[in-house]
Description:
The protein contains 9 helices and 10 strands. The chain has helices at 45-52, 96-106, 111-124, 140-152, 170-185, 197-203, 221-227, 233-240, 246-257; strands at residues 5-16, 19-30, 34-38, 60-65, 68-69, 81-84, 158-162, 189-193, 206-211, 214-219. Helix 2 (96-106) crosses helix 3. The N and C termini lie far apart (65 Å). GO terms for molecular function: ATP binding.
Amino acid sequence: MDRKEVIRLEGLTKSYGGEDVLKSINLTVYQGQIVGYIGPNGAGKSTTVKMMLGLVEGYSGSISVFGTDIQDQDHLYKRRIGYVPENAEIYDSLTASEYLAFVAGLYGIDEEEALDKARKLMSQFDIDQVIYSRLSSFSKGMKQKVLIISSLLHNPDLLFLDEPLSGLDANSMLVVKEILSQLAAQGKTIFYSSHIMDIVEKISHRIVLISGGNVVADGTFEELREQNKQGSLEDIFNDLTGFHQHKQIASEFVAIVQGVSS
Ligand SMILES: Nc1ncnc2c1ncn2[C@@H]1O[C@H](COP(=O)(O)OP(=O)(O)OP(=O)(O)O)[C@@H](O)[C@H]1O
């Protein structure tokens, strides 16, 4: 059976202020894959995601989502996408129910139906008792659960998750990881960006590492281990990004803190 292409990036290049952040990225993602998209701080992960969402323009190369170049389609393709941003601008003065009804409206879902679904999903995360409370009173993890729910209310085919487990306790993380596996098993495609290497290692069917503007590794965790070195994804990450100085940097940092550096 042919694998269905969900995302295709061809020669994707993006510069800011004359600096190339992405240098000709080529990547094809297929339906049902969980792709762990990793790289050092500032490597261009969030930029790539925002470009696919049509939030960042001014690039060369091409981006196809659901088989069509995003420049040749209207915004309706976004109705099949869910997005958990790294730094979400959540409207703190709204209650959870108001916020979720607002997001549902953006996706064109009926408000009553959306609220019924939101209440059931909040109950699964054990936060349904605060559905009418303002988000400003929510803890970080509670807000993150609302964001995850808001990204899934419209049952999207493609999910972009940027550090989605941020602030979640260990039990909630376990639940969300299992939700992602089950969604992927049902044919949803998940583009997962995170710095938590052991989670990326465990949940991803495929890991894509970008560094210096290029894809420097692309494969299953087992393939990456075979091609690079035995060890954890953290070891492979350190190796492929040429980072071996953590002890030296830490010693110098501590010396400066203690005021003993030259
Ligand atoms: N609007 C912008 N204007 C100028 N430079 C930007 C802008 N957005 C991103 N950049 C730069 O592009 C580079 C990539 O940023 P991006 O946020 O995509 O990195 P990232 O891989 O997601 O990093 P992190 O892991 O720290 O979240 C950084 O050097 C950043 O300073």
